[in-house]
Amino acid sequence: MSAFRILLADDHPIFRFGLCSMLRSHEGWEVCGEAADGRDAVEKCKQLKPDLFILDICLSELNGLEVARQILKHNPDQVILVLTAVDSEQVIRECLELGVRGFVFKSDASEDLVAAVEALQRQKSIFSSRVSDLIMDSYKRHKDGAAADSVTGLSPREREVVQLVCEGKASKEIAAILNVSLATAETHRSNILRKLRLHSIAELVLYAVRNEIVHVHFPPVLHFPNPEVERKRSLALSRSCVLSGGAVLPKEGNGRANVVAKGLD
User: Fold this and answer.
1) The domain spanning residue 176 has which CATH number?
2) Fewest beta carbons less than 10 Å away: which of 91, 119, 165, 255?
């Protein structure tokens, strides 16, 4: 029996390494390739023709939604499992409309991911419970008469240009990536701003974030110790200690280090 061939597309090397290790440990599964950006993902999927394509939404140069759109247009039978941290109802809805067969969040348990891959291997569709919750919430909002989110009127190529512009690519770089002339790339930029009635790149970036053409992930806030606060805390600790036999002993239960200072006799 031939191996079940899997292609991964994710922009985080450490995450890809861990995911590859997990998938390869499963009997009968083979990771046939990896991609770190959207355009590489499209090319490798067309070239390798995997049994399953595991795809993140947040990819540089071409986001996962546009990758899925291009892949399924080229090969409607390609099985795609979206594995992402993006929990947007709009993104999920567009993935379903494109024909994505599975959707799992990175916050889900590893057992959920394995179960999803096994289901897709059996030609079944599978979606995280969180996906169902988001879809139901959307249905209830629309049923209650809430206005649906405006759908961008941009073409797929214009959405590609928007993402590249928002990633800081100059017109010359965009032309090279899209394999078009510099004049065509600049025309795309001008037409997009005119169509959206925007007047600056800053406004375009805001539009792209709001319409989930690009996704912004904020890093966790790291709290570093304040030297002055630490000094006062150490001083307060020393005052709370009791002197015993010439040694400074921390009071029991104060939660500090259990080191005893000696050599004072």
Assistant:
1) 1.10.10.10
2) 255
* Residues 47 and 135 both lie in one domain: yes
Same domain, 199 and 241: no
**Which three-class secondary structure string do you get for the chain?**
CCCEEEEEECCCHHHHHHHHHHHHCCCCEEEEEEECCHHHHHHHHHHHCCCEEEECCCCCCCCHHHHHHHHHHHCCCCCEEEEECCCCHHHHHHHHHHCCCEEEECCCCHHHHHHHHHHHHCCCCEECHHHHHHHHHHHHHHHCCCCCCCCCCCCHHHHHHHHHHHCCCCHHHHHHHHCCCHHHHHHHHHHHHHHHCCCCHHHHHHHHHHCCCCCCCCCCCCCCCCHHHHHHHHHHHHHHCEEECCEEECCCCCCCCCCCECCCC
Which CATH number characterizes residue 37's domain?
Answer: 3.40.50.2300
Residue 54 covered by a domain: yes
Question: Per residue in 68-111, pLDDT tens?
Answer: 999 999 999 999 999 998 877 788 888 888 889 999 999 888 99
Asked if 70 and 171 sit in the same domain, the reply is no
pLDDT tens sequence across 170-198:
888 888 888 888 888 888 888 888 888 88
Give pLDDT, residue 199.
75
